[in-house]
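Quick one from the shared queue. A colleague (R.T.) flagged Restriction endonuclease, DUF820 as missing a structural entry in our internal table.

Convert sequence to C-alpha cells.
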Amino acid sequence: MLKPEKKIFSLEEYFEIENRAEFKSEYYHGEIFAMTGASIAHNLIVSNIITVLNNSLSDSRCFVFPGDIKVQADFGLHYTYPDVSVVCNDIEFFENRNDTIVNPVVIFEVLSQSTKDYDRGSKFKAYRKIKSLKDYVLVDQYSIFIEHFYKNDSGFWILNEFEKVSDSLNIRSLNIDICLSKIYHRIDSRYI
C-alpha cells in the first residue's frame, strides 16, 4: 500500500495558515503539526510556573509568556509554542511579527506521553540553536520529576534532575530559585 505523500509548506504558507487558524500548530522542516489540548495537571503546572515567575520577576526587565507566543527555534525550519518562555531586556520579534519571539532566555515544557520524546529530542536540539537560551526545563506532569538543562559559562549544556517536592530549582539566568512545591502546587492524582 502506498503511503500518502507528505505536504511540505513554505514558512510563508505556515504563517498565513496560522493567521487564519482557530487552533495553534507548530512548524517543523516544512511540516505543520496541530497542537492538541492539554490535561488539567498540565494546565495547573503551567499556571503555577507563570505565577512563580511573574512574582519573582515583577521588578525586573524580564517578560513571562504563556504558550500562545511562538518561538523561532531554528531559523526558517522550526517554530514552536513552548508552554512557558521568558525574555529579558528587549523582546526581539521574527520579521516584525508580534506573535513570534527569537530571544527567549528560559523555556519550560510540561511533558505529556505524546510529546516527551519530541521535547527531549528534536525540539531541544533546535532550541539549543537559540543563542539567547540559557535554561531549558522539562516538567513531568505525572510524577514529581524535573529535568533542568542549563548552559554553563563554557557553552556546554548541563543536566540537573529533581525528584523531591522540597527540592529547589535554581534558574541562574534569571537569578531565582523555584521550589518544586510551587510548581506542583495543588496537583494530585485526580488530575493526572
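The chain is about 20% helix and 30% strand.
The chain has a mean pLDDT of 92.
Added to the table.
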